[in-house]
Design a protein that fits this description.
The complex is a heterodimer.
Chain A: H1 11-23, E1 29-31, H2 32-39, H3 43-55, E2 59-66, E3 69-76, H4 78-98
Antiparallel strand pairs in A: 1-3, 2-3
Chain B: H1 3-7, H2 11-52, H3 65-91, E1 95-96, H4 98-126, H5 131-156, H6 160-179, H7 183-205
Classes of the chains: A alpha+beta, B mainly alpha.
Amino acid sequence: MNELDPVIHAPARLRIMTTLAEVLEDGDTITFPALQKLLGMTAGNLTTHLAKLSDAGYVEVAKSFAGRKPVTEITLTHAGRGAFRSYRSQLLALLGGSA
Amino acid sequence: MNEKLDAANDPREMLDLIDTTRREAVRHITGRYAGLLVLWAIAWGVGFAALWLTRGVGGVDLLPTAVGWWIFAGALVIAIVWSAVVGIRAGSDGIRGRSQLQGALYGCSWTIVMVAAWALISGLQSNGLSQELSQLLYPSLYIFLVGVLYLSGGALWRAVPMYILGGLLIVIAVIGLFFGAPTHFLVYAIAGPVAMLIVAALMYWGPVAPSAAERS
């Protein structure tokens, strides 16, 4: 059994990945405040974990402006969706093996 | 998320965390639709019950004709306005992209279908459809079409409770029609809200449908 993906294998990032995989279809984005509301995390905490997920190429964080208002939009990449899927299968396999 | 949770990384706990997180996300998004369905159940129950109790329309001579129709129309208008409010709020969910277009097109199909149904029956009336048959056809056609729209919505979003409601509404529309006027108002007043409340409960407390990530 390969080691579990350390980028996802942390509760805060697992919650982020699970929520993104659940609410976003391919090609969808979610704004930072909306994601923050769904997760109930502090802005600082969410930013830190999103940075780690972004470094791994699992999410893309795009900053733009709507008029003068800055907008941050997050999307789950194909690699991210795939990584989440295999992480989940690995968990299931681990539990199936130990049961 | 706190440090204590960060330290927990037992596979079983992580799998449970996936499940609770998904449930929270789904509840956050669909919770407002379950609430909306409860409102529709009330509006529908009150509206059709009022028609059933209306002189010259329903089976019981309790309400003056105009009052019955006003209650029915008022209940529906409140529910429609509230649906629009919920729809607009959903638009500010912060999710954009493909599913936003999907939702917008689906919303439009409700307007198209509802207006077209009214035009269809008007066409039949101008070709001699009697008042009695119109009273039978209007509610049953509308309930049938709402059922069809729920079927397609359920299929689009893989929302099984929504799909079930669509099927139930179609069955209720057909059965009510066979009861004939004015008993169909009573059938709709009872069966419709019961179906909606059951489905609202399923939406809120029922199992979460498998997501794309799990269908591998």
